[in-house]
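Morning run. Coffee first, then this:
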Amino acid sequence: MSDWIPLLVRREDYPELAAVVAEREAGRPDAQPISVVAAPEATAAVATPVPQGEAAELARHVPWSATDLERLAASPALTAHRWKAAIDACAAAPGVFIPTDRLALLIGVRTEDWADAEIGMRRHLRAQYPDVPGLPLATATGTTLLRDDDQLWWAVTETQARRWTEIRGSMPRSRRPRAPLPVASALD
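And here it is:
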């Protein structure tokens, strides 16, 4: 029997795609009979409680002011570009910690390039944003979050995500920086 993986699809496309899968399965020698059913009913999203370690790390993070976020969003620097992509990715799920390797994948760079961007951002902040309270994203080690690894995990608070989304939505879509990036970002 083959391995199966989940596939997220739009609700309106589900019956058609499920029928395609059923048709292909019927022609396979190891196929089990399957039937296509209607797409599951939409349910209201229920907020799940954030684990205590994550909540504590998010509570420690001091959100940036809208003015500082606007400056970052308008910055043409390559480091700022990578951070904008990272904040975009984290803002898509406020309060959810994302491991470094996954965040790098989401923003379309190698893990090593994201590590360089993190170091570069710390220098960039000292030079350009001396009054900001820290990084624009909350960070915690896997150990702190009771995870099985010790890489850094990244998140954005609800407050910061809301500010960031409003700022990014009000700005004209900027071009990528001229410096080469190893992989196009999935967020562009």
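Residues 1-43 form one domain. Good start to the day.
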